[in-house]
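Bench notes, afternoon.
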Amino acid sequence: MTRIRSLYFAGAALLALCQVAAAEDVWHAVHTLVPGDIVRGDDVVAQAPSGRQRNIMPASAKIIGLEVKRRIYAGHDVDEQDVGAVTAVKASTTVTVLWKRGNLSLELEGRALDAGAIGDEVRVLNPVSLRTIRGTVTGEGIVEVNSAQ
């Protein structure tokens, strides 16, 4: 019985060692990052996972240049929902709205009702007609409207 018990503990220790060796490094915050920060190389470091979260970013994922969406405390794993594409249009800011159809183009100023990164669809308020239109963010403070609207 003692031999079986010692084999059991040796096997459990070997299994735990194999799991640690197989664990992929993940991104950890070097210092506290707040929403709106852009992740730089000195903000994060690749280390073994702490096991605190499920959707942690593997060190193989490109994280430099992304925007922090939720506060990340120093030493914590970086979750996939903590970072994202850089916001090109912020809610409640003035944006340039472009509308193109053939050779005809129209440019006006509107107020963004949603925040979005390049490629995201956002709602924009036309201050003249007070009509809400939808468009795609194409640049910093620029929203392009589909010609069908």
